[in-house]
């Protein structure tokens, strides 16, 4: 069972950054996490973070974002320095249920194997946040086929569960279409 531990106030700050009232553009953040084996899965725990700003994007629209090369390099360098896994978070501010879009899936298909290679095969977690909830995919064992995240542990014993709407359609070769 894979989980992400977040303090409740930090979770709220992340969601506020990712879903601001002032814009309909997608937003992003990255968490630098330690991981440890727990209950047959992994527990991700944030040790640092970076809330991305407009200068960190090569493109930033209502339905698409792309990191700048400088931002990507800085994230990888910091993860290396901290010996941390990365948790990628971005928003879908529209009214649809939380799920990774087809362009998100195509990007993850390319990004995840590269990031895991760069970060010495450390696990990678991707989260998409929407006003209605969130979805998540974990790459712990396989760089091409994701596993579910059981939920976000806010420390009260209950898990904030993802939609799991994006787990279907990942073939053995990682193809998600």
What does this structure look like?
With 177 residues, the chain is α/β, with parallel strands linked by helices. The protein has helices spanning 8-18, 69-82, 102-118; strands spanning 3-5, 28-38, 41-51, 57-60, 65-67, 85-91, 124-130, 133-139, 151-153, 159-160. The protein is built from three helices and ten strands; from the N terminus they run βαββββαβαββββ. The protein has an eight-stranded mixed beta sheet with strand order 8-7-6-2-3-1-9-10, with helices on both faces. The protein has a two-stranded antiparallel ribbon with strand order 4-5. A hairpin with a 4-residue loop joins strand 4 (57-60) and strand 5 (65-67). The mean pLDDT is 94.
Summarize the structure.
The chain has helices at 8-18, 69-82, 102-118; strands spanning 3-5, 28-38, 41-51, 57-60, 65-67, 85-91, 124-130, 133-139, 151-153, 159-160.
């Amino acid at each position: 069972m894979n989980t992400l531990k977040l303090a409740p106030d930090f979770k709220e700050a992340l969601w506020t950054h990712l879903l601001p009232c002032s814009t309909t553009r997608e937003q992003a953040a990255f968490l630098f996490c330690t991981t440890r084996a727990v209950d047959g899965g992994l527990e991700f725990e944030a040790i640092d973070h970076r809330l991305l700003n407009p200068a960190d994007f090569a493109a930033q629209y209502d339905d698409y974002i792309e990191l700048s090369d400088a931002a990507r390099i800085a994230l990888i360098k910091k993860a290396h320095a901290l010996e941390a896994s990365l948790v990628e978070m971005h928003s879908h501010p529209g009214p649809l249920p939380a799920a990774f879009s087809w362009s998100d899936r195509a990007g993850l298909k390319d990004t995840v194997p590269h990031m895991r290679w760069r970060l010495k095969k450390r696990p990678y977690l991707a989260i998409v946040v929407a006003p209605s909830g969130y979805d998540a995919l974990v790459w712990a064992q396989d760089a091409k086929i994701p596993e579910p995240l059981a939920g976000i542990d806010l420390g009260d014993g209950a898990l904030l569960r993802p939609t799991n709407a994006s787990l279907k359609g990942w073939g053995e070769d990682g193809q998600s279409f």
